[in-house]
Write a structure and sequence with these properties.
IP5; 1058 residues; phosphoinositide 5-phosphatase; 13-stranded mixed beta sheet; 32 strands; 23 helices; 6-stranded mixed beta sheet; hydrolase
């Protein structure tokens, strides 16, 4: 079982790492891959002081002329690279130094060479692309690998000299024995998928892995871009033949071979929603579920290859298990049926696309028990099962496409009656017969396909570990046994040996998967092997259960951080700068591509209600919310989403800083969800359709952001991420800071920043510093920053004050002269001077200052401090895709602030992703032709569109771009912005232009509402919204994978059964 191997060479200055194929040294035409940061040793500095992108250079270079610049590293040959990662200010390359061959899926018996060897990673190392400190063998020891006594979660990465490799935990995780790779074929795909791609003449083979099961896709991003974009035909051939980059799959590979048969069990864990047991539950907005595993059983016998696939995964609804878990299964369902439906549809849509049909097998309890399980409403395992069934019914898909079987495993097998599992198998027999299995000849390329599997069993329990593994084992042996019984060339003895081996392999498979998700081996392994359980099994399960308790409550967070770092999730963006490939064609291709945006996209407008409210540390007391969240009385003006930013949602005391209590936020989640739907029905009456639901919420001590959406918008929402950034005490405390949200509305990116900046009437510089610290320091997944969005909105207590004596400020308010008062507004002056929020716009303020009142009244501060009334609570925005329609305050008296509200319109674009990918491929292909032929002619994208729009002679018609439906006629659009010029720089910020007769009252409040005013207020005046820019959201980010399918375009038209 041979593998492609490489020698590692390094160059000191400018710093570079070279991977040299072992055979290239003896070939006159040999080539190698050189990897460096743009600028060599200056890679860190090249990224910029603000933590910007790191540019990576990849080159295929000839050994004969260029290798002499490098020196060999003192180490054995390696198996390839697992990718690149920027971490804590340095960029590292991960190399697979030790691996063990598990089996060969291409050979008749799994042992002899068949060209499809699967390796298990045993050790990886990380070398710096900017420093040679880890080149020495003494500094390359990585604790946590399979041969080491240390565990990667210990964080002990030091060597004998006390130097710690920052990537020691990551290297230990990759070398923990849970990862596999195959140099010569695509291990991320099933045998059926590989065969069909081969039959269809797909030549990408292992170079186009399935992103769902490729765990190091983020680390290999620049390698994929280099191969697709920068490489010409010859370079791509050499790159593919060498196999420099290795795709990793997490899971399990088990093998058994007898005299007349070979059996393999291959499990692939999904990378979509990965993490540890109690930290990752349920579904996300992309449709990924926790602990989702695709398990494939392969049997090679009598010249035939048989394969059968099953999947497991967490219940695909939004649910969590908070707090310390002491054996109970208290669950909290966090979204309603309607709010959950789009994510559940995306999950099942992915399964239907991959496997054709689905039978959902639910092993949860059907009744809550008096002991060992919470009995409060909606908190039991049984309640979760009922909610799951409701979601399956809500999809309204034919049972032939998505079937459902509930089987209370614990109730059925109580008392050791494990044979009761076979009653489930009898119920599943019709779907198993309908779904069938994959069968092909072993000889020949491509193989002759004799049968195709056209459906899959999706099994779950609460953890998708022990009960699930037992049931999947029984299903697998039933299907394999049925196949072997109908194969005349296989004897009874061979069949019995295969089934006995399969039982043990499923037990080992369950053990490995359990270690990945729960940190211990699987329970009920004796049941999986023999179908019985004894005292030995009971004691073993008790020991593992105790170990799981300790692991889940005290050790999982360290491992979760490592997983997030590998996948670019969680808080990893705070310590990782994004890596960008140095692509000489990117600017030209992107410029050509932008020309066709109107022809491959459709546009619409989405409305949002924005609110910021400082609660002064007060909990909700149950009082009526009045007109606070009142809505327009026109269905056309109904907000599609509502974002509420709280500040001081809890008292800013020491206890809250140490451990913020989410109880107040949880209360507001329930209260606001109910209030929004009440206001919706009140405003529209019988015309009110659908409901609002909480989509996401997050909290940083006193700052909280709650995001609600109408059910009609939910299918357009994807990629939602939350991030936090502290600015209190120089970034050490969360008393000040922000909670930010990134969300994609179709193909338009929106960022909402709920902020609370430094207090104090004269601390303007501190507030400016907080703004810049958040703007530069906050990162979302893959290093996306606040400024990297089509539109960004800040809403919060920005704390900018009025620079006037108290008596003068109050006199101007009493006289109804807010325009004069605004001349002394600190935020307006900072925006004009360009020291903070320089590229942001604020709609003209037409209401009186919102701070500070005597709590529970409309009277400005009468305490000893007598604060100057100020507009501390603000909403500012940037980006041509957003404009404000209304800007107002409400008169509710829950705090010493008044809530500030805004109605915004977001220009949302949806791009035909398939057409875009084809155009990108063609643009790059033609660039290479132009370069190789020496032709200077421009590539015109219009002709490419015509070609791409007419596949197989039939023209595909995209709907024409729809202009924003709610834009006012007669608005003259400014000149589109460019990299060198922005339209908003042509005039002073809108916040500095204030009408002389402003309006104060909530425009959506009932006219009969009585408001007690302590200060004379000016009369109403209509708002004048700022114009909507014609600037379009970016069509494509060429630094990311343009061929990745995010699953957002799943059609939910009725599907006819096959």
């Amino acid at each position: 079982m041979d593998s492609k191997r490489f020698f590692v060479y390094v160059r000191s200055y400018p710093r570079a790492i070279a991977l040299v194929p072992t055979h290239a040294l003896s070939s006159a035409a040999g080539t190698f891959l050189a990897v460096s940061t743009l600028g060599g040793n200056g890679g860190s500095a090249a990224a910029g002081d603000d933590g910007g992108d790191v540019r990576i250079s990849l080159e295929i270079r000839p050994v004969a002329s260029d290798l002499q610049q490098f020196t060999p590293l003192d180490m054995d040959s390696i198996y390839g690279t697992a990718g690149l990662l920027d971490y804590q200010g340095d960029t590292y390359m991960f190399l697979i130094t030790q691996a063990q061959a598990q089996c060969d899926l291409g050979s008749p018996d799994g042992r002899t060479a068949g060209g499809q060897t699967v390796y298990r990673v045993q050790q990886t190392i990380a070398l710096s692309l900017t420093d040679n400190i880890y080149d020495s063998p003494a500094y390359r020891r990585m604790p946590g690998a399979m041969h080491d006594d240390y565990h990667y979660a210990s964080g002990d990465g030091g060597d004998m000299y006390g130097v710690t490799n920052p990537c020691a935990a990551m290297c230990g995780f990759l070398g923990s024995g849970a990862f596999y790779f195959a140099p010569s074929f695509d291990i991320t795909r099933t045998r059926q998928s590989q065969s069909l791609r081969s039959v269809l003449g797909d030549t990408r083979l292992a170079h186009d892995p399935d992103g769902k099961f490729q765990w190091n896709g983020g680390l290999l991003r620049v390698f994929g871009e280099y191969r697709e974009h920068v490489c010409g035909a010859e370079e791509r051939r050499r790159f593919d033949a060498a196999g420099y980059a290795v795709s990793l799959v997490e899971g399990s590979v088990e093998a058994w071979w007898g005299e007349a048969a070979a059996v393999f069990v291959v499990s692939r864990s999904s990378s979509m929603r990965s993490g540890m047991r109690f930290l990752t539950r349920g579904v996300d907005d992309e449709g990924g579920v926790a602990n989702e595993v695709e398990t494939e059983v392969i049997v090679r016998a009598a010249g035939r290859e048989f394969a059968h696939v099953q999947v497991r995964g967490s219940v695909p609804v939004f649910w969590t298990q908070d707090g310390v878990q002491l054996g109970s299964h208290r669950v909290r369902i966090t979204r309603s049926v309607r709010a959950t439906l789009p994510a559940t549809k995306r999950h099942f849509g992915d399964l239907l696309m991959r496997y054709g049909r689905v039978c959902a097998v639910n092993l949860l309890k059907t009744q809550a028990q008096e002991s060992g399980e919470a009995l409060e409403a909606g908190s039991s395992e049984a309640a979760l099962g009922r909610f799951y069934r409701a979601m399956v019914d809500a999809m309204r898909l034919p049972e032939a496409l998505v079937g459902y079987q509930a089987f209370d495993y614990n109730g059925e097998v109580r008392g050791g009656n494990f044979d009761r599992v076979h009653t489930l198998i009898r119920r599943l027999t019709p779907s198993l017969a309908d779904h069938r299995y994959y069968l092909a000849t072993c000889e020949g390329q491509p193989p002759v396909v004799l049968a195709l599997q056209r459906g899959v069993q999706r099994t779950n329990c609460i953890d998708c570990l022990d009960r699930t593994n037992v049931v999947q084992s029984v299903i697998s042996r039933s299907v394999v046994g049925e196949y072997l019984r109908h194969t005349a060339a296989v004897s009874v003895g061979v069949r019995q040996a295969v089934l006995a081996a399969l039982a043990g392999m499923w037990a080992a498979n369950g053990d490995r998967l359990s270690r990945v998700y729960a940190g211990t081996g699987a329970l009920k392994t004796d049941v999986t092997v023999s179908g019985k359980s004894g005292w030995a099994g009971f004691l073993s399960d008790a020991t593992k259960s105790l170990s799981r308790l300790v692991q889940s409550n005290f050790q999982d967070r360290g491992k979760q951080s490592t997983i997030d770092l590998l996948l670019g999730a969680g808080d990893s963006a705070l310590v990782c700068r994004p890596l960008r490939l140095h692509d000489p064609y990117a600017a030209v291709v992107e410029r050509e591509l932008e020309k066709c945006l109107p022809r491959i996209s459709a546009a619409r407008s989405v409305r949002g209600m924005l609110c910021t409210y400082n609660m002064h540390g007060r909990a909700y007391d149950g009082s009526a919310l009045g007109s606070w969240l009142a809505m327009p009385r026109s269905a056309a003006e109904r907000p599609d989403f509502v974002a509420v930013a709280f500040q001081e949602i809890v008292p800013l005391d020491v206890q809250s800083v140490v451990s913020a209590d989410p109880a107040n936020r949880r209360t507001w989640e329930r209260v606001l969800a109910a209030e929004l739907n009440r206001q919706h029905r009140r405003a529209l009456g019988d015309q009110a359709e659908g409901e609002y639901a909480l989509v996401s919420s997050e909290q940083l001590v006193g700052v909280a952001l709650l995001f609600f959406a109408h059910e009609s918008l939910l299918p357009s929402i994807h990629g939602l991420q939350m991030a936090k950034h502290k600015t209190g005490l120089g970034g050490m405390a969360g008393t000040k800071g922000c909670v930010a949200m990134h969300v994609m509305l179709n193909d338009t990116s929106l960022c909402l920043v709920a902020a609370h900046l430094a207090a104090g009437a004269t601390n303007v510089a501190e507030r400016n510093a907080d703004f810049h610290a958040i703007r530069r320091g906050l990162r979302f997944r893959y290093g996306r920053r606040i400024d990297d969005h089509d539109c960004t909105v800040w809403l919060g207590d920005l704390n900018y004050r009025i620079d006037l004596p108290n008596d003068q400020a109050r006199l101007l308010i009493a006289q109804g002269q807010p325009a004069s008062l605004m001349m002394y507004d600190q935020l307006s002056m900072q925006m004009a001077a360009g020291t903070a929020f320089s590229n942001y716009t604020e709609m003209p303020i037409t209401f009186a200052p919102t701070y500070k009142f005597d709590p529970g009244t409309d009277t400005y501060d009468t305490s000893e401090k007598m604060r100057v009334p100020s507009w501390t609570d603000r909403i500012v925005y940037r980006g041509g895709a957003v404009r404000m329609l209304k800007y107002y305050r409400d008169e509710i008296r829950l705090s010493d602030h008044k809530p500030v509200m805004g109605m915004a319109e977001v220009h949302v674009v949806e791009v035909d992703k398939g057409l875009r990918r084809r155009i990108v491929r063609e643009l790059y292909a033609r660039r290479h032709v132009v370069e190789e032929d020496g032709v200077a002619a421009e590539v015109r994208v219009e002709s490419l569109i015509e070609v791409a729009e007419e596949p197989q002679g039939k023209k595909k018609k995209m709907p024409p771009p729809v202009p924003p439906q709610r834009s006012k006629p007669g608005v003259r659009l400014p000149v589109p912005s460019s990299d060198a010029h922005a339209w908003w720089d042509d005039e002073a910020p809108a916040a500095r232009r204030l009408p002389g007769n402003p309006a104060l009252i909530n425009p959506f409040a009932p006219h009969s509402l009585s408001i007690d005013r302590s200060t004379p207020l000016p009369s109403d005046q209509p708002d004048t919204p700022s114009p909507l820019s014609s600037e379009q959201p970016s069509l494509i980010d060429l630094s990311s994978d343009p061929f990745a399918d995010d699953g957002s375009g799943i059609s939910w038209e009725p599907i006819e059964p096959i």
